[in-house]
Prior knowledge:
Layout: H1 6-14, E1 15-21, E2 27-32, H2 34-38, H3 41-52, E3 61-65, H4 70-80, E4 83-87, E5 100-101, E6 109-117, H5 121-132, E7 136-145, H6 150-156, E8 160-165, H7 167-171
Parallel strand pairs: 3-4, 3-6, 6-7, 7-8
Antiparallel strand pairs: 1-2, 4-5
Helix pairs in contact: 3-4
Amino acid sequence: MLPFGLADRIRAAAVQRGEFTLRCGDTLDEYFDEYGLAADPVLLRDVAQALARMLPRRTDSVVAMALGGVPFAVAVSAISGIRTNFFRPAPKAYGTRRQIEGQSVDGTRVVVIDDVVRSGTQVLRATDRLQDAGATVVAALCVLDRELGGRERLAQCGIELHALLTPATLYALDSKRTAS
């Protein structure tokens, strides 16, 4: 259950109206700007606490999807005491040349964290690479599930998606509030 008032606060900090083009080429008339949310330390803490409550019991690492999932995974890690790994879309071209940063994930149970899930493609790409590295992906967490098929695609691969918000809960008045 979402803490009272949290959806209103997230909406005020993160939802922008206008014309926005996504990485995949789709256009939207509104955008979920996770940086507006993550820039507010109190709101970030409250979101991380809500996400941490969704973690499966046996989780060895939370894996941050670059870049949108990084502030949420780090905050969840700080609250839960579970370590963080970082997943890059492609291996670094310099330095360590890693795609998965942090300690080894071999033999661990991990939860992938991202800001928004649409089709689930990015989480599935990360899952493939994490499995190649020896991890078991037990779930995925996100702040907003856009409900565009991602949950179903992830479920087909045995990954349960836990979302803090959906479009319906983001826009419902946090309010089963009663007028007095």
